[in-house]
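Hi there,

I know you've been waiting on this one. I reran it after we fixed the sequence typo, so this is the corrected version. Both the input and the resulting structure follow.
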Amino acid sequence: MKYKAVLFDLDGTLLDYTAAQRKATDNSTKLLDLVNSPEVQNYEARGIPSTDSQEMKQAFESAGIQQNPTEFLNNYFGKLSEHGILMEGAKEILESLKGKVKLAVVSNGPGDVQNPRLKKTGIAHYFSHCFFSRDIGIAKPDPAILHLAMKTLKVTKQETLFIGDSTTSDQPAAQAAGIDFFLFKGDFKNPKLRALLR
């Protein structure tokens, strides 16, 4: 294998984000729509808009949720942090790469939510580093978070592969960083992925 480092997105790639969201919102369609709104997703990844901003209040009003945004989101992210659900084949792919390449997570989200989820799945020990956008202040598709990961791992862009599921954050970040990217579509047994990691 030509790579010395493999970077993984977390939600939708290694962890089942949709299932965790459902559990954290008690399968409420209205709440699921709210937590997947641009405002809440941007708050999760970047911390903006703030929970007390007019934009956030409008998002709650549009969703018909009569709750204080700060209280609701603190409660939601607390619940989300309790649900680490592995995507099928995730542990097997990490085990196959252990000791052969450097492994790291690059995720749009806060560490205080993502770290507990990683620990619950039993895969945290595979990664030498985790780069969380809220903690760093840089979110994909900004390639700077990938540049930081490569610098920390001491690898070049030619030696790095990034695996993620998003065509709006992961893929453009990899392209802008000039590193190889594999678009994950739910199957770690994909022959193309296996060939890349052989």
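Quick highlight: Strands lie at 5-8, 102-107, 129-132, 160-164, 180-183.

Best,
R. S.
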